[in-house]
Structure prediction request, 281 residues.
Amino acid sequence: MPELPVVRTVSELRAAIAAWRADGLTLALVPTMGALHEGHLALVRRGLERAERVCVTLFVNPTQFAPHEDFDCYPRDEAGDAAKLANAGAHLLFVPDAAEMYPAGEVTRVTVPSLGEVLEGQFRPQFFTGVATVVTKLLLQALPDVAIFGEKDYQQLRVIRRMVTDLFIPVAIDGAPTVREADGLALSSRNAYLSPAERAIAPRLQQALQAFAGQIRADAAAAKRAADVEQLLRDAGFSKVDYVRVCEAATLQPWPGPPAAGRILAAAWLGRTRLIDNIPL
Ligand code: PAF
Prediction:
């Protein structure tokens, strides 16, 4: 198996990248929290298409979890992740610890109001400030040409695009399509929490969004029926539905109807597992 160099400090990361830059090589960054699956490996492959070197970061960022969330039990498997990344052709793995990322504690924060306050922001109020802050740090530590994020976390992608624009961070942001199981379930590290019975219900989320998108494409007035889709998911066995919303793709405000590009976003619970998914209109 090819060897994957691992660095744990910002100075080692910058030294490795400086050596590539001295050779004139371009760099793609793939930020992750580990527990890697095929969706993450697709981000690495996309990075390899976009740049000559790919650096993956692995950091389970404490500031994007609320105290009652799954930070402590979030799946961690650095050795397994490193093996997958080596096979996928990544060139470097950056695994900082919390002291390296937050050496002076958490003081400076990056917040993206409005885009970060709706949808996920309503149910996880700390989430996007934690994400925006850590992604700003990672981008400024590595200064890649491009950073790759999955469309499964569609709102995260929009927040990061806006943040990079507003802060003049000189990095292109690339969104990669969601990778799915054969039955439509979006790959997620949290799928590991699902019991077999929950796993059988999980694909109904994407199926419901597909059916809803089809109805809206046929008749835009159907966009008003998101509450019906929420009920359908509860009937299918989801224990709680945080939201099903039809949004304007760029702003995540309520979709005004055609010709504005729309996106349906949803979050629902199966027991202790929270699933999110989305679909373009
Ligand atoms: O999508 C994720 O895995 C995380 O939110 C990210 C972007 C790596 C920031 O911690």
User: Anything to note?
Assistant: DSSP finds ten helices and nine strands in the chain.
